[in-house]
Amino acid sequence: MRHLPSLLVAASMAFTFAPSAGAEVRVLTSIKPLQLIAAAVQDGVGTPEVLLPPGASPHHFTLRPSDIRRVREADLLYWIGPDLESFLPRVLEGRSDPSLAVQNIDGLHLRHFGEEHRHEDGHAEEHEDDESTDGEAEGEHDDLHRPGALDAHLWLDPGNARLIAARMASDLAAADPENAARYQANLKAFDQRLSAVDAKLKARLKPLSGKPFFVFHEAFDYFEEAYGLKHAGVFAVSADVQPGARKVANMRERLESAGPSCVFSEPPMQPRLAQTLSEGLPVRMALLDALGFDLKVEADGYERLLMSLGNDLANCLEQL
Ligand SMILES: [Zn+2]
User: Fold this and answer.
1) 42 Cα–ligand 1 center, Å
2) 142 partner at 20 to 30 Å CA-CA among 19, 101, 124, 241?
3) What distances in angstroms separate CA 24 from CA 20, 71, 242, 263, 317, one per listed residue?
4) Which residue has the higher pLDDT, 241 or 181?
5) Distance between Cα 178 and ligand 1 center (Å)
6) Are residues 101 and 127 located together in one domain of the fold?
7) Which of 166, 197, 228 is the last residue of a domain?
8) Are residues 66 and 193 in the same domain?
């Protein structure tokens, strides 16, 4: 899918897309953050839908028959790309209207997972051993975050969000020329709000660079890069599995050597080992939500997603 030419060129739209006059363009996005960006662009004109229910991980999702129907019926469909929503390409073949993997948008800032998180603390080899000796499955999730792979959590870069919004605005204008001016105005308003939020986040997070924190899911690298933060390590265990004693000991060792630090997991679930990990150590546990789990779908939803990420990081790191 990655190499498909962009499918939403205006010319093809004119032939393949003909909404009845005045009808709302039905926009469907795979994940909530894309829905929030679309909501900003469609503000006052329409309401975008989302495929993944709250709390579902795009890394492990299975479409229901009703989802497949929604995929087929949407006028415009946006997803990140096959590295994130591996469940989607097969279903997209059944669509006649255009869809866009936003990772293909020109000029997007794309990161790849580096080797550094495997080696930064010298535990990389041991870490691998633990996985096999404890009989724990690395799982699909970890495979998706392997060194060298595209880091698909690209919506957490504010610059990427601008490009995605701009693309949605031009697609919507082509599909619904009557409201073209409105989409452009919405895009401009989105850019302005985003600049304000970006400045606030930079001011608050700058003094916190260098404060150590760990994540259970390597989903925040774009955000970290944008705001000068860097995680000290990743605990690659899934939220509902209690890892073996050796692995827990290894994680505690890493925490011990980091000193006072924050450990972030994702809502809705805090890993069962959270307590075991932090017991007797100067470690603060907190939640960090890359997907905007509990955010309302409103025009400023994306900015609130960034703000709550920044606030949740800062509220913990400031207390170290
Ligand atoms: Zn991920």
Assistant:
1) 27
2) 101
3) 9, 16, 47, 43, 44
4) 181
5) 39
6) no
7) 197
8) yes
